[in-house]
Amino acid sequence: MFRIAAAAVAALSFMTPANAETIVIHAGTLITDAAKAASGPSTITVTDSRITAIDAGLNPAPEGTRLIDLSQHTVMPGLIDAHVHLTGDHDSAFWKGFIDTTEYGVAVGLKNAKLTLDAGVTTVRDLGSEPQTMFAIRRAISEGMHAGPRIIAAGPAISIIGGHGDVSNVRPEIIAATSGYNTCTGPKECSQRVREFSRAGADLIKITATGGVLSQQGRGLEAHFTPEEMTAITGTARSLGLKVAAHAHGARGIEAATRAGVSSIEHGTFIDDAGVRAMKENGTWYVATLMAYRGIEEQLGTGIYTPVVEGKIRETLAFVGKGLGAASRAGVPIAFGTDAGVFAHGRNNEEAAMMVERGGMEPRDVLIAATKGSAELLGVSAETGTLEIGKSADLIAVEGDPVRDIGALERIRFVMAGGREHPVAQ
Ligand SMILES: [Zn+2]
């Protein structure tokens, strides 16, 4: 019982207090809640990793405290990326997965965790990694061994045999050696996978509800699981207190996953009116991952993608941002997620400008999605997403006013995660 409780706490908070010292931060402009108007010059006090006071004006730092001067910048809640793959790198060909060890994956993941924090992203939801790698990384960061964001981790995605998330179009010996642990056929087996991943330490369940662009499977981008399999997954997850995130491109796959009760649709490329309606009715979150398409587009023709993958890429590129526009106009809740790993980690915040330019969203709504919106989807609102007394000191400073110029999120000047100051290159 105690072990379960400890694991749950580790997932949600940075366990080790940053230090016993009190830090006083001077903010030129302060956004405590992205949905509300910003305040002028303000003083934030941080003690033992938590925000202990927020006062108007630039007040002198009491003796024995340390002052951090951000009076030239806008201070706001740390950003939350609801869709990353820390153990993956964008320029790594798919076959490297058959050569690199899972232990090496941990090293890659720690490297990317630091790059993510450099970008002002203080919380991530990792939606697909080798078994155990992300749980080890999550623990190392929460114990203060390594710099990185708070991690909410799914572990491996659950897929149909031959689906996005399984191994396809390679020698049978390789399939036999690397496939099976994350696939299921029929409601019983699908429920079993959910329980196995829960036992392994998953904070949520990720499924590939439709085909995917970057896998070698040649069965397109529409629905993959049967409705009975998806309902078995969501029902079992709910019984364990776990949400389900569904990778979904095809319109019918999006609608079916939504009706089965998933908490979020990832990508949502070809969503139609029926899908938007279903998401609105069910309160399902939309996570657009527009940066994934930019990353893919940038690498087209470099030889990294096989013909089966290139065909699927060309199907999607004309639709980038259309689904986000339709969903946000209809009032579907929007979270901020990028698919970092498909592009270089650290470029996460380019997503924000894309949400404005390609998705037609207002900058303030993007800011809400990237802070309190994603916090709600990830179930970490009590810890982060807004700056409030008692919450974790997850805060960043940007140059400029992100409500007027969303590009300010690409000018990160200061990062603090769980009360720990993280040095960023200027
Ligand atoms: Zn992904």
TrEMBL record:
CDD domains: Met_dep_hydrolase_A. InterPro entries: Amidohydro-rel, Metallo-dep_Hydrolase, OTAase-like. The keyword GTP-binding does not apply. Residues 74-420 form the Amidohydrolase-related domain. The keyword Cell wall biogenesis/degradation does not apply. Keywords: Signal. Residues 1-20 form the signal peptide. Coiled coil: none annotated. This is Amidohydrolase family protein. It comes from Pacificimonas pallii.
